[in-house]
Amino acid sequence: MYKAPLQDHAFILHQLLGMEPLAGCPAYADYSAELADAVLAESAKLAENVLAPLNQTGDREGCHLSDDGQVRTPAGFRDAYLQFMQGGWPQLRASIEDGGQGAPLALATAAQETWASANLAFKLCPMLTYGATHALTLCASAHLRARFLPKMVTGEWTGTMVLTEPQAGSDLGLIRTRAVPDGDHHRIFGQKIFITWGEQDFTRNIIHLVLARIEGAPAGVRGISLFVVPKVLVNDDGSLGDRNDVRCTGIEHKLGIHASPTCALSFGEKAGAVGYLVGDANRGLEYMFIMMNAARLGVGLQGYAVAERAFQLAVDHARNRLQGSLGKGTGPAAIIEHPDVKRMLLSMKSGIEAMRALTLYTAWQLDLAAEHQDMAVRAAAQARGDLLIPIVKGWCTEFSVELASLGVQVHGGMGFIEDTGAAQLLRDVRITAIYEGTTGIQANDLLGRKLARDQGAAMTALLTEVRAELATPQGRADAEAVRVAAREGIDALGTATAALLQQGATAPEHALAVAVPYLELAGFALGGWLMARAARLAAAGLAGSERDFGETKLATARFYVEQLLPRVFALTRMVQSGGAAVSGLSSALI
């Protein structure tokens, strides 16, 4: 059974981050620790009682496509979505002006973790709907917002992100979907693939945000526009009209997330699908990146959310599985007492805590960037949030695949058997390192758009602030050991950053070849910093009912810096050596 990690959420939101700076954000004037705890308690109930029981059954049943192009979701999913909608959860992050609740992103991110842990396939649907509503809020005309947003905000209609085509994967400059002007709208013709929740039986309408090229537009990414293409046309009075010329032609048979339909969509098999231009022509990729950035944070949290579920499953198995003797004259012991099993479980627990802290810290920065009344604070927070997004997406997903695999290993042979559920979690989490931009794409973004563009200024500002925080010795020995190790990790990140910037200026192809090791280095080092902060706070607050939690936090922080953080030194050496061994090698020799 899944249990939401509410105590760790509260610790991070109320102590590790210290959400007081949100007081400078008028939009969050009503935010409080009590409100956050109440919201997360309710999200946990939904996750534990409604979504989690459907995870394995949904995986086994999967989705099915009928002859009429309608996707049938697994038993229980429609009712779960109805409960999700009736609980007001689609409105959590939407702006108050659009009928939402306007909650901080950091709070919403914690809530989304519980849903992703409970049922990743389900969680993908509302995640994409929020991204679509956010993009429309910022980029669409008042007319389009009035027509489509109200029912998307309530969850009565869902939204999708429609980018990929059979001949164009991540290179969106190659898309061929056409948009032909037709009065106050366009007619869309083309084929799209890998559209998550592109068809479903939850709602009466689906609002697709589609990238297409208006006839005569420039070649490449400069000629891409964004269109609203509803599954069912919407009349001027808001009622539903005729079915639009868009059809689901197939759903993919995937390694994991079987309960999430990944669709192939055909636009314009007849007269052309009606599409409404969002914003200005030829700025579609710019607008779509609004959705993609939101999705990348959401996918990063999906990684450690599934790892959290894998950890809980592994701990339960390890506590109940008797095997072998520890050589103390006793009988068989629970395998959780075996040193190597304990090591694996602590790797999972400490790694998840570090990833959770970094992701919520990033969400908090984006909250400040969006709403703080001091423009200097906003600019600095935006730069930091932009810097951290690819690290969250890339590091959290790659590391979580490793941790979910450890969960299988803890189960031994039983982990390879589907009945335990451990294998499903490994299958499900594997996609997180791929969709919304592979780890290589995230690393290229980190190097090219985030480091090179400002010559490392945002990273330097972060490292300077972190070094100052880690300069104060701690009174308790274990907290001090964590601080010293975390500082060494941050220094290694600084060294690697300087080396990467130098390579980028003189041999860009060498820098690109070590961009992924650099991204992973940044994740482990920044995770170490936040674990050191957690250790300091835990050491200072060891009293009363929180004592056990504090001691556990200190133990996981110590394990992290001793067993996981040392990876930064090997990664630093990889970055410093440059990628000549990769980029200098002829592909014919591979």
**Percent helix range:** 55-70%
Adjacency order of strands in the biggest sheet? 4-5-12-7-6
Largest sheet: 5 strands, mixed, barrel
> What's the number of helices?
19
The overall strand count is: 14
Low-confidence stretches: none
Strand content: 5-15%
Task: State the separation between the terminal residues, measured CA to CA.
Answer: 46 Å
Shape field:
globular
Query: What is the arithmetic mean of pLDDT?
Result: 95
Radius of gyration: 24 Å
- SSE-based structural type: alpha+beta
Describe the overall structure.
The chain is of the alpha+beta class. It has a domain at about 440-580. About 55% of the residues lie in helices and about 10% in strands. The chain has 19 helices and 14 strands. It has helices at about 5-15, 35-50, 55-60, 75-85, 105-120, 120-140, 140-155, 285-320, 340-370, 375-410, 420-430, 440-450, 455-470, 475-505, 510-515, 515-540, 545-565, 565-575, 580-585, and strands at about 65, 70, 155-160, 180, 185-195, 205-215, 225-230, 230-235, 240-245, 245-250, 260-265, 275, 320-325, 335. The protein has a 5-stranded mixed β-barrel with strand order 4-5-12-7-6. Strands 1-2 form a two-stranded antiparallel sheet. Helix 10 (about 375-410) packs across helix 16 (about 515-540). The chain is globular and about 80 Å long. The mean pLDDT is about 95.
Structure, briefly:
With about 600 residues, the chain is of the alpha+beta class. The chain is built from 19 helices and 14 strands.
